[in-house]
Design goal:
Methylamine Dehydrogenase, Chain H, five-stranded antiparallel beta sheet, 46% strand
Length: 405
C-alpha cells in the first residue's frame, strides 16, 4: 500500500464512512438466515468505528441513544471504510490492500473474523475506501469496494448454504470475474440503488479526483458484474471533489467537498442521472459525508465541523435547508451514522459523528418532524482513541447506520 498517497487525502476526508444499500428480489420458497441468529438478538443497537490506532470499537447504544463504554478489538490501521449488512461487519484494510470480514453476534454485538479474512482486493496498491453491498436473490449477494487508485473491486458474498428450509448466509468474499473495474481516479465512496422500473441494481461511485467532479454509474448484472451506464461519468462541477454519496429512492445526492455544495440528481430506470432543478445546493465548508434519515438529508462538513440538514421533497427530491442548519458539531470529522431504537419506537432518532480531536463521538437527537439536531447530554462521548469511520447496527433487524451506511 502507498501510505504516502493517502496523506493529503486523509487530511481532507479522514476516513469517510462507507456506504451500504442492501436489496433483494426473487426469494423463492426459502428464507434467508445469517450465520448468526437474528431471532435471538438483544433488541438493541451497537455503534462500530475504526480508529487511527489499529482498533475497531464497539459501543452499545441504549434507548436514549447514549453510547456505552467502548470495547476495543485489534483491527486495521487508518481504515477508510466500515459498513455492515446486519449480519457481517466489513472493514477496509489498507495495510493488506484488502477487506476484513467479521461475523456479528446479535446478542452482545461482539464480532469474530470470518474464515479466510482478510480478503484481497486483487487491485493495484490503492487502499480500499467506500464499500457497498447489493443482492439479486437470497443466494446472490455482492460487495463492491472503491480504492484510491481508480478501481472498484467486486466480490460475491458467501455463497449462501441451503439447509433445506433456509439459506444460511456466509460472510466470506470471492472475487468476481472481470474485477476490478475502472472508475476514474479515486472512487472513495459508493452507494447503490435498485430500480423498480427496470428491476436492475446500480452502483454509483463519487470520484474525488475527477477534474469534472464525475460520478461513475454502473449497472449490476445477475452475476454481479458491472457495466458502465451510458453517459457515465456524470458531471457535477469542475474540480468539485465529490466525496459523500447517498441514494434515497430515485434521488441521488453527492457532497462536493471543494465547492461547499450538495449535487442532486434523478436516477432513471437505466441508471442515468439528471440534475435536479436548483442543484447544486449550498452546504457548509467541506462537506464530505452524507446520510439520509426519513425525509431528511444530513451532510458532515469537515472543514468547519458542522452538520448541514435538509428536508427532501418526497415528490421532487429537491432540498430545503432545515431551520437552524448548519448545526455545530465540535471538531467532528469523517462520517455519519443514525440509530432508531427498535421497530415500535416512536421517539426521536439519533445521529452520530466521530470527533477524532476529542477522542469521542458527537451524538444528537433528530427531531422527526422538523429534522433539527440537538446534542445529547454528555456529548461528546469517550471513544478511548481517535475514531474514524463509523456505522451503527440494530439487533434484531436491518442495519440502522446507513451512510450509510
Amino acid at each position: 500500500m502507498r501510505i504516502h498517497s493517502l496523506g493529503a487525502l486523509a487530511k481532507l476526508l479522514c476516513a469517510p464512512t462507507a456506504l451500504l444499500v442492501l436489496s433483494a428480489c426473487g426469494a423463492g420458497s426459502h428464507t434467508l438466515t445469517p450465520s448468526s441468529p437474528q431471532s435471538q438478538g438483544c433488541g438493541c443497537g451497537f455503534l462500530y468505528a475504526t480508529t487511527n490506532t489499529n482498533q475497531i470499537l464497539s459501543l452499545k447504544l441504549d434507548s436514549t441513544g447514549v453510547p456505552g463504554t467502548p470495547a476495543q478489538t485489534p483491527g486495521p490501521a487508518n481504515s477508510l471504510g466500515i459498513t455492515s449488512d446486519g449480519s457481517f461487519l466489513y472493514v477496509s484494510d489498507p495495510d493488506h490492500n484488502a477487506l476484513d470480514s467479521f461475523t456479528l453476534n446479535p446478542n452482545d454485538g461482539t464480532f469474530t473474523p470470518v474464515a479466510g479474512s482478510p480478503f484481497a482486493l486483487n487491485t493495484s496498491s490503492g487502499a480500499p475506501a467506500g464499500i457497498s453491498v447489493t443482492g439479486y436473490s437470497v443466494t446472490k449477494t455482492y460487495l463492491y469496494a472503491g480504492d484510491t487508485n481508480g478501481n472498484i473491486a467486486a466480490f460475491m458474498v458467501g455463497p449462501a448454504i441451503d439447509n433445506g428450509s433456509t439459506w444460511i448466509l456466509q460472510g466470506n468474499l470471492t472475487p468476481l470475474g472481470g474485477s476490478p473495474y475502472a472508475a476514474g481516479a479515486q472512487p472513495l465512496q459508493l452507494t447503490s440503488w435498485g430500480s423498480p422500473q427496470s428491476l436492475t441494481d446500480f452502483v454509483y461511485a463519487a470520484d474525488f479526483a475527477d477534474p469534472n467532479g464525475g460520478v461513475y454509474a454502473f449497472s449490476v448484472g445477475l452475476d454481479g458484474t458491472l457495466s458502465p451506464v451510458t453517459g457515465s461519468p456524470f458531471v457535477t462541477a469542475p474540480a468539485a471533489g465529490p466525496s459523500g454519496i447517498v441514494s434515497s429512492g430515485i434521488w441521488l445526492y453527492v457532497a462536493l467537498h471543494n465547492t461547499n455544495q450538495i449535487a442532486a440528481f434523478t436516477a432513471a430506470g437505466n441508471g442515468a442521472l439528471t440534475p435536479l432543478p436548483g442543484s447544486p445546493y449550498a452546504a457548509g465548508n467541506g462537506p464530505s459525508s452524507l446520510i439520509t434519515y426519513g425525509n431528511f438529508l444530513y451532510a458532515l462538513n469537515d472543514v468547519d465541523h458542522s452538520i448541514s440538514a435538509y428536508s427532501m421533497d418526497p415528490n421532487t427530491g429537491m432540498l430545503t435547508a432545515v431551520s437552524g442548519s448548519p448545526f455545530s458539531a465540535g471538531s467532528a470529522f469523517g462520517g455519519l451514522a443514525t440509530y432508531l431504537p427498535g421497530p415500535n419506537y416512536s421517539g426521536p432518532g439519533f445521529l452520530y459523528a466521530p470527533d477524532p480531536a476529542a477522542n469521542g463521538f458527537r451524538a444528537f437527537s433528530v427531531d422527526p418532524i422538523a429534522g433539527s439536531l440537538k446534542p445529547l447530554a454528555g456529548s461528546p462521548f469517550p471513544a478511548g482513541s481517535s475514531p474514524m469511520a463509523i456505522t451503527v447496527v440494530g439487533f434484531p433487524g436491518q442495519p440502522l447506520g446507513i451512510d450509510p451506511p
